[in-house]
Amino acid sequence: MKKKLLYFVTLITIILSSCSKNDDPAPDFEEANLAPFSIEFDNIVGDRTFSINNTGSLYTNAAGEKFSISMLQYFISNIKVTTASGKTYTVPQDESYFLINGADRNTRFTKVQVPEGDYTKVTFTLGVDSLRSTMDLSKRTGVLDPAAGGGHDSGGMYWGWNSGYIFFKFEGNSNVISDDVNGDPTGKKQFKYHIGGFGGYSAPTINNIKVITIDLNAAGIAKVRKDRQSNVHLFVDMMKVFNGPNAFSIAAHPNVMFSDYSVNVAKNLAQLFTHDHTEN
Amino acid sequence: MNKKHFIVLFCLGLFIIACKKSSPIVEEIETFLGFQKPANFPATAYNFASNPVTKDGFELGRMLFYEPRLSRNNTITCGSCHIQSSAFTQHGHDVSHGIDDRLGTRNSPPIMNLAWSKAFNWGGGVYDLDTQPIIPITTHEEMDENLENVYNKLRAMPKYTSKFKAAFGTEEINTANFMKALSQFMVMCISSNAKYDKVMRKEGGVSFTAEELEGYTLFKDKCSSCHTEPLFTDGSFRNNGLGISPVNDKGLYTATLIETDKYKFKVPSLRNLKYTAPYMHDGRFLTLNGVLEHYNSEVQATPNLDPLLSGNRLGISLTANEKTKISAFLNTLNDEDFIKNPLLAEQ
């Protein structure tokens, strides 16, 4: 009898505790009650995984051009989360700049702290906001240090001559690129997309900052709790650089840097992100 | 007391006064005064609140300014293209002559009165003096180095780690400290002791000659709307009607991509012209006379030509006589104290 009761109590306890886990009511939203949260920027290329220097197994864009990728780096900044009831929390700006490097899988998480709660939307910036782009150098450290990554010809993400960051740097090779001045005169068949432009210092210039909001309802909301690591897993599809709303061919535009055409490419960049699932 | 005694006493008195006067001057040289705005200059543009000039910071900036390790192969310093005796330009070079004998596309501009400058480079693009040195250090034709390499070279030198500690309270060499030290040196490169300044400040009874005064009047009539006193630039970007150069340098447009910025370049100061030839963004004029004749007869109606140069006629009419007088006035803007100031020289 005693043994039976014990079983019964245990069973009830298990059921109750599993129930409570399933319900898991959202804690009261308190700004000081911080817990770990991350967004994962998982780079993909169309139907395939992302790999650097994939010269043995080329990707093919919608224009039928085969290409390999040699570099991918982009800034993610100004992360904000929103609950179903519309409460928002913006991560303190000083802790909200990340450089995702396609060659280094460890850089794919933007790990921050947000209040415990259930979030149905995440918002972030692809690029670096204009305020930070013009801030005192002592406020631009880590990935924002103009010295980081070497010069802008290598892994650097800063343009000294126009005082701005390169938001998105994507390089690779394709045989469709001509060897003349309209392509790559060095004969290396290289494409380079260095997209930046924070809107200008004194007069308005091109602004390629993209603020992106992802609705999490369909693929899983983020339940942020102290004892867990809630992670919003996004796919970032590099194929859409070429195949987005402003589709273009590598042969026609093998180099896009600080130019009016960069605005078209930047519009494609806003479409790279899709929510695959959330790990709570 | 007879007359002789009086004269002796008088002479003794003179000596005493002379002695008294000399001792505070010696002290003054020994005390670092920091940044001091000349009485006849306007408010500064540089953000001194985030980078106050200190003796150690200034001295560190000066060490860095003359440090060849800022370049890839340790051959070029900032002072290579910004030579003090040429008022911190590269006299005699139309375009800057950098590492491995590479040539740039623009004339080396003076490091002068930059605390009043809101935009940098002939073609703009930089609006904070602290971020300006990134360009020459990393440019292929100039120093061709990357910043992290520079810091690593300096980190290995105790004279730098100790100086950074003295200036910023930390031995750490990072972008902010490095750039701020250079800024502290550069903002101290103040040229404000030309004859013009002394006349304006009414110092020591200095006055213009009749020819200089006539030149000044002509200057105010024909030149001063862009070359505004007392800095002799309004800091704006304008197209002054130069024929388009063989390299088709589009000036400010390169940094903004705004069509109306094409062929606009920063209005340069007219101070120290005696030491800074050749002139214009690409150093195309070897003499001042060449510049004045450009305004008189060679202005071309290229896109975005400044409206001040395209009234009833292109350019600004200048007779030979007027050019002589204007040149006489411009000569009063040469500041020998500036090019000889031992504080600004390589130590």
TrEMBL record, chain A:
Q: Which domain of life is it from?
A: Bacteria
What's in the keyword line of the UniProt record?
Signal
Q: Where are the transmembrane segments?
A: none
Q: Where is the signal peptide?
A: 1-20
- PROSITE patterns xrefs: PROKAR_LIPOPROTEIN (PS51257)
What residue stretches are annotated with the Copper-binding protein MbnP-like domain?
Answer: 36-257
Name under which the protein is recorded: MbnP family protein
TrEMBL record, chain B:
The chain positions of domain Cytochrome c read 210-334
The UniProt GO MF terms for this protein read: peroxidase activity
Q: Which SUPFAM superfamilies match?
A: Cytochrome c
Entry keyword annotation includes Signal? yes
Its keywords, alphabetically, are:
Heme, Iron, Metal-binding, Oxidoreductase, Periplasm, Peroxidase, Signal
Q: Where in the cell is it found?
A: Periplasm
Give the top-rank taxon of the lineage listed in the UniProt record for this protein.
Bacteria
Question: This chain belongs to which protein, by name?
Answer: Cytochrome-c peroxidase
